[in-house]
Each structure stands twice: as structure tokens, then as C-alpha cells.
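Complex record, two chains
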Amino acid sequence: MIEFASAIAGAVLLLLLTAVALKGWLASRQLGPGLAASEEDATEPCPEEFVNRVFSRADWQFVHGLEAGGIERLFEQERKKVALVWVRHTFAMVRKVMREHARAARQSKNLKISTEINIFGQFLMLMGVCGILSAAIQVAGPLWLGGLAHFAQRLSQRVSKLQETFQAGVLANAGEAGSA
Amino acid sequence: MLSQTIWWSSNALEVCLLARGASSRLIFRYPVFYTYLLFVLLQSPIRLVAYRWHKETWYGPVYWTTEFLGLAIGCLVVFEIYRAALAAYPGTAKMARNVLLFLFVLALAKCGAALWSDPHLLGETTPLQMERALRTVQAISIVALVTLFASYSIPFGRNLRGILLGYGLFIGERVICLTFVPVAGKDFWFYAYSASYLVALSMWLKHLWSYQAIPEAESAQLEREYQMIATATQRRLQEVRGQLRKAVRS
């Protein structure tokens, strides 16, 4: 078991150093700026109306009302592309915020470890949400995300109701056992 | 024959590195690293003498003493990398100190727990197993340091990057080889174990041929309070979070 853990630690170190070396090599050959430039563009968040519009079903209901299958499919494809671009833009913005934070924080003498861990946790959570959102858009499309969210909410409500019932049952049993 | 080739090549590369280090005055910038190289170069003739004339009595103790001394100086090399890379970045240096302290306490606790459950463990552990355990701790520490360097975008000069990459690759390869190397006999892992140092030496020779300064940190941010920076980042992340929530709920 210990041997296996050692081999994994060695492999992780080798992979990490290879990635760092590769990144340095790409930067020195100036192949990286393409990606960096796209991240630099992500300075401002998209307007709120834009986000509401992309994920809203109002436009889809209008197109659906036209009863033209071709236009409907085209509309769904285009909306999916726009939604994915928005998720990518948000992803880039989060990375940019973290990069700027790292540049500023690395020189602070009074850096707080707990705050850094908190910020890193938020960053990981947002990365995860972007990943899940991207996968959900690919699978279901942006127009059905609202439905997915409602479904998740209904599911979590049902789970908490079940938990309450279970807890009430446990308490009742404990009460009966105590009186006996 | 292959062992001889690796041995002679390693010594030749070490001499070349030390000569280049002296002529480019890199020896004075990274004294611990060059002391490590000199130590490894000197340990070869010492081991050879012990092997030739006192094989039965002295070779084993001499081999393992020099091996563990090399490991200890190697830890100092990691400390030199940390010191040189983070001299201008007190924030990241503080984070690195805490992370390394946490890892050290974790390793000690694991060791203590193992000894508690089996008091004879220390007597039953072979030097090879001991080296593997210590090298693994060293590998994990380097992983933590490299992750921090990458997270905080710490700029490296060519020389320091070479020392870190070479030593990190050497430790990574050695940990893997130590997992599979046989106690007796010579197979692929025995030669890979010996050749891992040759790979590190080649990398060092490439990166340490001449001196190159470490890019300086921009000092404009120095005056900013950490709390301000952290609050601004958290606010911006909250904004993105709000947008994502709206997108899902719309």
C-alpha cells in the first residue's frame, strides 16, 4: 500500500513538472498569447439582460408558435452556441480574477491563510458550476436549464421532507423507549 | 557495462557543471545546490574505495551514510529554491511555510501512528524502505511548492527553473524506481534508478550554462493592503456567482 502511494506521489510530481516545463516552453515560443488574449478580453461581465435573454424560454415560445421545425432547430442550435460562449466567457473571467488576486496577494506581508483557502474554495466551486453548466447546456440546451433547476429544487425539497419524516420517526421511537 | 557508462557519464557531467558554475559565478548564487553536486561527486570515489578494499565490512554503512547525507543536503536544496524564488513574495512565502509545516506534521503523525501500532517497525525497516519513505515526503513537499509557485504565478529565472525541474524530476523518478527496484540483482528498475540522476544532470547543464537573472517583481502592488485585495476578489467572485445563479433560475 505504502509502495503504491510512493509511486503515485512520484508520478504526480513528474506529471506536474512536465506540465510546468511545457507551459514554460509554450510561453517562450509565444504560442500561449492566443489563449491569454481571450482571457484578457473577459474584463467585464455580460449585461444582465443578455443573460436573462439567452436562458429565457420567451423567444423559444415565439419561435415554437411559428410551427416551423427548421427554424426551431436552428434557433436551438444558435442559442446553445451563445450560451456556451457565455459560460466560457464567465470561466475566463473567474480565472482572470484569480490571476489578478494571486499577483496582488503574493506580495502582501499580512496574507491570511484562512481567507486564501476561502477564496480558493469559491474559485473551485465556480469552476465546478461552470463545468456542470457547460455539460448541462450540451445535453439539454440552455432553454431547459430553468426546468432542470426546478427539478433539482423539487428533488432537494422531497429529500429534506423525507429526512424530516425520518427524524420525527427516530425521535418518536426514542421517546417510546425512554417512557418504557 | 551499462552501470559503468552511467557512472562515468554522471561524474563527467558533474565536473562540467561545477566548472561552469565556477566560471559563471553561479556557485555564489546557489551555494547549497553546488555543495550538493560536489558532495555527490566526492561520494563516488569514497564508495569505490569502500567497495574495493572493505566490501564486506564498510561498503554497506558507507553507501547508506552517504545516501542519507545526500538526501539531507537535497532537502536543503529545496529550501534554497524556496528562499531564492520567494524572496520578493512574502505573501506566497508565508503560504508555503504553512503548507510545508502542515505536510511535515502530517508525515510525523503518520510515522508516529505506524510506530504506535507496531513498535518493532523501526528495527524491521530496511534502508531502502527508509529512503523510499523519506524521498516520498520530499516529493510531496516539491509537489506542494510547485503548485504554490504555479498558483501565484511566481516568475523564475532560467537557472532557478532548471534547478527545480532537474531536482524535481530526479526525485520523482527515484521515488518510482525505489518502489520497483529489486533488493538483489539488476533489472530495468536498477538501471533506471541509476540513470535518473543522469537525466537531472543533463537538465541542469542545459539550464545552468550561464547566469540569467530572475525577472523582478513589479513593486506597484506592494503598498496595497491584503484585506482590500481579498475583499475585492471575493466581491468579484460573488458577482460571477450571482450571474450563474440567475442563468440557472431564469
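Note: DSSP finds ten helices and no strands in chain B.
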